[in-house]
Amino acid sequence: MTLRTVDLGSRGSVLTTTALGYGAMSIAGAYGPIDEQGALNLLHEIYDRGVTFIDTANIYGLGLSESILGKFLAGRRAEFTLATKCGIEPKGEAGQRGTNGRPEHIREQIDLSLSRLGTDYVDLYYLHRPDPQVPVEESVGALADLVTAGKVRTIGLSEHTAEEIRRGHAVHPITAVQSEWSIFARDVERYVIPTCAELGIGFVPYSPVARGLLTDRFSPELLAQKDTRHKFPWFFPENLGHNNDVAAHARELAAEAGLPTAGLALAWLYAKASAFGVKISVIPGTRYAQNLDELLTGLEAGLAAEAISALDELADQMCGDRSFSPTWVSGGREGLLPRS
Asked: Does the domain made of 5-212+263-303 have the CATH classification 3.40.50.300?
């Protein structure tokens, strides 16, 4: 298959990639077990469907995701747009990690990532989270040095506020901002998305199907004991039943539109991005090729204005925040979280 492409970024720092990418946290077992051969088989399925934008990070499985990708990319590196990240301490468990945006840490981590990925450059390198102890200008300056060194082609910021994005962009052009954005998680629409549109920065939504809630087969009983989602308020026992009921409304709207719910979620995102005037490449993660096929239905699907309006009402009905800590995401630091 050949998927449509999108140009992320501007000002001489443009990255052309597929409008649908793959978030490779899943191949490190964040949402349930998958062995290395299963992960490699899945990556081949993704490639066969025309998805050539792959997003990973040094902390996904503490290097495991990058290492598996390195094996898969051997002999075909040039066919892919590859993004990875630094800035979260690569140790400990999710929800308990600190940040590190010091230039020496950034320089150290890119070399470790390149070694695991089996390549001498990445197409997009993100600061995964801002470090409150290090000015964003200093961290972005270190990322810019990696561009000069040829180890990185473009740079990005992840879960940064509109103000942080502006400050970083003044040091070096930011090609893409990555944050959570979905029918259920919309805080970025207040400040971050308009800022990206104004500055010509691309946007890369992660968790576009709300960590599985916006799919047809989600069931609370399917969450494994070690599933990372247990750490997120949407999935707390006191919230999950209600939130699954909210998701049921989205499933009904998907059926009316003749789409899988995952496809509906992506179609909604593309429609909203167009309305804001921002270019996006969406990076859902999955362990199953069947799920990818459902996601692909949203790539070119159009939604009626009535459906978009109905979906727009669902975010305010969710219980709990999108993150385990409001300070961990841009909306929390912009005063848009928490919410009951």
From this structure: no
Active site residue 60: yes
Are the CB atoms for 126 and 85 separated by under 8 Å? yes
Residue given tokens 């993004």 in the structure block: 83
Beta bridge partners, 91, equal: none
In one-letter notation, the amino acid at residue 131 is D
Assess contact for 289 and 45: CB atoms under 8 A.
yes
Tell me what the mean pLDDT of segment 193-217 comes to.
97
Q: On the CB side of 8, how many CA atoms lie within 13 Å of its CA?
A: 30
6-25 per-position pLDDT tens digit: 999 988 899 999 999 999 99
Considering the candidates 22, 31, 60, 125, report the single residue annotated as catalytic: 60
Query: Alpha-carbon distance 73 to 202, whole Å?
Result: 25
Say if residue 254's pLDDT is above 60. Answer: yes
Q: Where are the domains of the chain?
A: 5-212+263-303
Quick one: tokens of 32? 């349930």
pLDDT tens track for 102-127: 999 999 999 999 999 999 999 999 99
Strand-by-strand arrangement of the 81-86 sheet: 22-23, 53-55, 81-86, 122-127, 152-158, 176-180, 202-206
Helix (H) or strand (E) holding 89: none
DSSP secondary structure code for residue 170 in this structure: H
